[in-house]
Specification:
2 domains; hypothetical protein PF0899 fold; 6-stranded mixed β-sheet; 5-stranded mixed β-sheet; alpha+beta; 8 helices
Length: 298
Amino acid sequence: MANTLTNLRDVKVAQRALKAFVKKLGPVSRFSTNFSAEAAERNATVNVPLIGSAPASQDFAGDYLVNIDRTADARTVPLDRHKFQTVHMTATEYNSTSVDIMGDLVEAAVRRLAEDVYVDILGVVKANIYGTAIPALAASAMTYAKMVDVRAACNADAVKMPEDGRGLWIDDTYYSNLLVDDVVAKSPDVTISGGTVREAKIKQIAGFDVFPSIVIPENGEKLKGFAAVPSAIAICNRYMVPVADYQEAGAVTDPETGLTFGYLRHSETRSNRVFVTVECLYGRTHGIPEGLLRIVRP
């Protein structure tokens, strides 16, 4: 079975939903990933190179091929996670209403699918892998000064987190307190203050790109966020070709990140209903423990 949608109506619905999928899952594309529309079966394995800092540069001595071999750290990640959402309409509704009605249903389903995948991916952030968190921190104590402390903790000899690609994944209650911090709100640097009033957005702070969320899982350990670099988590994502026949079935893929979900449509004559299922086949595991520092509540 082909893995490309051909029906124009399905293509429009799927492409509209893709925007919601990428918006929700975009922050995890910052980690070490291997995303593709390539077909795979559940429990197949994918090699995910861990993206880290390059080694020291060489002094040129007449040959560009001296000392170029390096060991690429990677994780073999099983595609052992499979989540889906199914929506339906009566055939009469499907054929008599505009594409936007089904589009609304599918977009909402894809948005929730992406959110559930996001939460599950962050389920790997636990103390037994990444070690002791910074001292427990209440949301009301999250200020610019505290972010400088987080930066210092990442730079400490015991951690030495690479400076390139640092991000901050943070619970929205903590993020909201940052928004009203005087240093942030009044900063002349537009990367910090440019969107705080208009859009409640902080693009970057203390050297971290910022990714607020209302669904960061506590993982039974009071987790409220973490600072991390790409090598901290390894994630893979593929398209699972259905074994049954569908009227439409295919991979829906973001060309920039490779993030992919499957789209399946079929009709049931007995109940006179049209069903659309969206699904995500993926896997996740920990990367380099030193690449992530947890933030927990008291």
